[in-house]
User: What shape does this take?
Amino acid sequence: MAMTQLTLQHFLAVGSIMFTLGMIGFLCRRNMIIMFLCTELMFQGIAINLIAFGRYHYASKVEAFLASQSFVIFLLVVAAAEAALALGLVVLLYRHKQTLDSQAWQELKG
Amino acid sequence: MNFLIALAPEVVLTGVACLLFVMAALPGAGIRRAAPWVTLLALLAAGLMVGCRMTGWAEPEGVRETVLLSGFAGYIKVISLVVGVLLLLVNWPTNRDGSGNPTLSLSSEGPEYFGLMLLSITGLLLVASANDMILLFLAIELASIPTYVMVSISRPISVAQEAAVKYFFLGAFSAALTLFGLSFLFGTTGSVTLTGVANVIGGWESMPGWLILGGMMLLAGLAFKLAAFPLHFYAPDVYTGAATPLTAFLSYVPKAAGMVALIRVLYALAGGMPGELPQVFVTTLWLVAVLTMTVGNVLGLMQQNVKRLMACSSIAHSGYMLTGVVVLFGAASIVDRAGGLAGVLFYLTAYGLTNVGIFAVLMMLPAKPDPFVYDGKVPPATTAETFSDLAGTGRTHVGLGLVMAACCFSLIGIPLTVGFLGKFYLLRPALAGEFYWLALITVVNAAISAGYYLRILATMFLKEPRAAAGGVEAAAEPVTANLRTRPLLISAIIAAGLGVLLGTYLDAASALRTLTLNSLDVAPRAVDSSSEGELVASLSE
Assistant: This one.
């Protein structure tokens, strides 16, 4: 019965699980590229949430449906900008120490 | 077209930022020396437009859904631009070839640096205006993303890049948290404008659990921008890694953007009625405020590096400002709520001015070569950073010492300074609104903070100067004061002058109350107009 139909909750569950996995990965992994990909995973989870919410409001509010999609487009733009920046910064660091391990960078402490 | 008119200051700033990026591609020292002047002109032009808007330009039609231009936004824009000019002066490249100043090493990236600075300030202005969650999110990111690049290019040493990466990763993480919260705010209400959200929430009996979860995520994400408790730990590292003038920038612009965004979003979460914010949020804010100021001050007591110390102080000041937010959303009477908001806004100005003053003095004090080596190259000279750098400098440079003393007293909150009035305006509504514990903890914290601010002054005035104490090591260090850097002097004078003006303008709080509370009108509703009458009546008594 209910299991055969996809509802808002299913999509939210997928989005939230992706977000949580990304968060766990960000906090636990040490490779800087993987850490960055984890933040991307968090962003994509949010995008699923937004699209699902937009579709849910489609029947009652068309403008919410459209707004959710433009929200996601802007989210992707910000994620892309951050990707460009992240790779630039990580490459700069890699040139100094030839490692991607975030624990190798401990000069700032106190 | 109406949007372009409504956002004219932001459009000008963004356009000039693009111009600066093009200028950066051209060779020549002349271009690099012209860049800060272009930036200054852009800031002044934007300030002129904001001023005209506040004193009479009509608001274009049909933009209120997306941008709000009235009192609150106008005030934030004015102080952002004033402090922005001071921060520009602190960052002014005074080297002959325009490649930076003794504390800031930009080599050929000067124009880009100032372009990024303009973009970041534009982000702050947009946050103040945003009435749409998409615009709000983009504005917060616009205020933050340029700062990651600025940290990386501000010093050619590896600590700066380490700081940039730390700052960037946590920034991306907190942006995701903020966005997760916004997605639930949008999803449960079906509206993307803050006005729409407030109207929907205003009609509810109670708030669904999902939205409370989303709201908490939102608070956590914004806590990063504020350097508030759960996400404050990056601040000391990042502020130490960045060049000193950039540290001044980092401790103001992203913090102000976070504070403004927090007030806007909570206003919508409360359904446009600040008194109706669910208790769980008020309690969380209370805890965050108390923990932030306590953690900041206790960390501050343990620092040896003045820039790390200023980072801890900046954490603590976020905590003080959050007490105003607690009062805004937790107090029973509308007068106290308005007072809380006015307190936060006044404190933002007071803190911004004093903070610039401290960093300007640090930059002018005698410098020694950078302790961090980078690729075998000789690093540029840097600012006084540790307490041993400061030893005795108050006696050799009396003027600077006195300015530093005034700024430190202001940050402690000693009477006759603008910082005292700031704390007074925060505490008075807190006491009137019966937040006795909050007020008490704030006062105790101000006393703790005196411990480390006075230590700066004690080191400057009571310790022997380094050269006099001198072993061979001390004599070998080139000691040069950057006293002849005019932009630094000008910014210190403006900061001090405005501080004194504000400190003597005793009606500031009531002026701010009438200016701002009603213009926060995320959801202008019938109820508000009656409380507006009540507010005006009670203020005129």
User: Anything to note?
Assistant: The longest strand of chain B covers residues 100-101. The longest helix of chain B spans residues 158-189. The interface with chain A takes residues 133-134, 137-138, 141, 145, 148-149, 152, 158-159, 161-166, 168-169, 172-173, 175-176, 179-180, 183-184, 186-187, 190-192, 236-237, 240-241, 303-305, 308, 372, 375 of chain B (CB under 8 Å). The CA atoms of residues 299 and 312 of chain B lie 6 Å apart.
